[in-house]
Amino acid sequence: MPDRLSALDASFLYVEEPTTPMHVGSVAVFERPRGGFDYDALLALISQRLGYLPRYRQRVVPVPAHLARPVWADDVDFDLNYHVRRSALPAPGADDQLFELVARLMVRPLDRERPLWEAYYIEGLAGDRVALVTKTHQAMIDGVGTVDLAQLVLDGAGSERDPFEHHWTPRRPPGRAQLVVDAIGDAVQRPGDVLDNARQVARDVVSSAEKTVRVVGSLASAVRSVVRPAPSGPLNGPVSGGRVFAGVRTSLDDYRTIRARRGCTVNDVIFAVLTGALRQWLHSRGETPPTSATVRALVPMAVLEPDTAEFSTAGLVGNRLEPCLVDLPVGEPDPALRLQHVAHEMAAHLDTRRPVTARAMLKVGGFAPATMHSLAARAAGSVSGRIFNVLIANSPGPQEALYAGPARMSAIYPVMPLARSQSLAIGVTSYHGNVYFGLNGDRKAMHDVNVLAEMIEEALEELRGTEW
After folding, report:
1. Domain limits at 274?
2. Which of 30, 231, 297, 354 could cross-link 407 (Cys pair, CB 3.0–4.6 Å)?
3. Contact 394, 274 (CB under 8 A)
4. Residue 437's closest CA among 424, 446, 448, 447?
5. CA 224, CA 316: separation in Å to the nearest integer?
6. Are 46 and 119 in contact (CB under 8 A)?
7. What span, in angstroms and rounded, lies between the C-alpha atoms of 362 and 369?
8. Looking at the 3D structure of the chain, how many domains does it have?
9. Cis bond leading into 92, ω under 30°?
10. Which of these, 240, 245, 239, 241, lies nearest to 100 by C-alpha position?
11. Nearest in space to 29 (alpha carbons), one of 429, 416, 402, 454
């Protein structure tokens, strides 16, 4: 039987455009150990782990005449050096130089003639640091058979995984005749797929979106519940072929202090901080939002299936990521009231769902937020961009240090993809005592993304210093 892409996986290939590549990424910064951690060491580490991820050695093979969805096939010309690349920053190697490079790397579509992932080893960072930038297509990450590369590469202190003992011999990919025969066989069993595939290839966006929503059944109710479009504003508009990126590091203790004072959750505080930052950013552009103004965020939340007893660490997607729509009160001038409104919005969503706790998600091995952010992007890709302004994906990470080989990870910034007509996507994660924000924006619409990044720190300080 052919290893055919699922309808959801294929949809991410069908709707991808040059200005909106459908891959998710991360920027991990490492302290170079005394024994060294160079490009060859990273190459060897990834090579050892690839046996756990067969999909990373497979490429997408289209079916002639689009009689069926594409299939996965071994890449007989697989070249690890092509996928794991090397680059360097000029002096002084500041973080803003790294983020500029990340923006340029992330806007480039992945080569569909090869497995749909890339990793970049970046040298030249100040303080004797190096960075690992990863890109993985949303069609690959399902949370069951395939997780994000960052989740597999990173380990806890003192823990070493045995290399996957195997001798990989690529299987010959199916020829055109075999692809047609398999497609006809599938069509006999599922005749509706032929027409469905023709519609997708024709890029019927409405049909494609409806199909995706049908596949992820839980999303249909979320979309149907919205009867009004998102508020208009600078966060929505045509997406250009350029990107800007900014990363922000804040202290987790500050969020915990505010949580203890207000009896809310750390997640509530994070979204209240982002609300305050967006408010200040709008003011920096000369806009004064009315008191009732909101920015609608699409927030994928991990929830349990109705018949699931507990969170499954074996298969993340066996649980569920539901796209929730949260109206952030950017018009509210009082930071305490902003937090109260956000906490109320979040509680309203959780009252009707079985949320996965942060503690449960932290039981997953490696750096699970990398995979969770990929799944969040998949969930977001199934929702019409007309009903939200910005994607915000938050996934808690471990509070102990993680390592890639001997190199300790000192920072991690998620890179979420932009959807059509979305100018900004925000990824958030906590790690080793800090909360990290990754702001990925359109280069034209979000040319001042650094201003918004600074506003996050100011909004946190404003909330922390508020008299309750």
Report:
1. 217-400+413-464
2. 30
3. no
4. 424
5. 25
6. yes
7. 9
8. 1
9. yes
10. 245
11. 402
The reply to whether 245 falls in a domain is yes
Contacts of residue 93, Cβ cutoff 8 Å, sequence gap at least 6? 124, 125, 126, 129
In sequence order, the β-bridge partners of residue 24 are: 136
How far is residue 446 from each of residues 50, 221, 236, 442, measured CA to CA in Å?
37, 32, 10, 5
Centroid of chain to Cα 237: 21
Tokens 């055919």 belong to 4
Strand 424-431 versus strand 295-303 pairing type: unpaired
**pLDDT tens, 208-253?**
344 333 333 344 344 444 447 888 889 999 999 999 999 999 999 9
Tell me, yes or no, whether 83 lies in a domain. Answer: no
Residue 339 within any structural domain of the chain: yes
- CATH number of the domain within which 374 lies: 3.30.559.30
98 Rama class: left (phi>0) / alpha (psi -120 to 50) / beta: alpha
- b/e 50-83 (16+ beta carbons within 10 angstroms → b): beebebbbbbbbebeebbbbbbbbbbeebeeeeb
Full-model pTM: 0.88
Average the pLDDT over each of 23-37, 75-89, 229-243, 317-331 and give the range with the smallest value. 317-331
CA quadruple 442, 445, 451, 457: dihedral positive or negative? Answer: negative
Does the pLDDT at position 351 exceed 80?
no
Lowest mean pLDDT among 165-174, 183-192, 324-333: 183-192
Residue holding tokens 């997640």? 267
Q: What is the DSSP letter of 199?
A: H
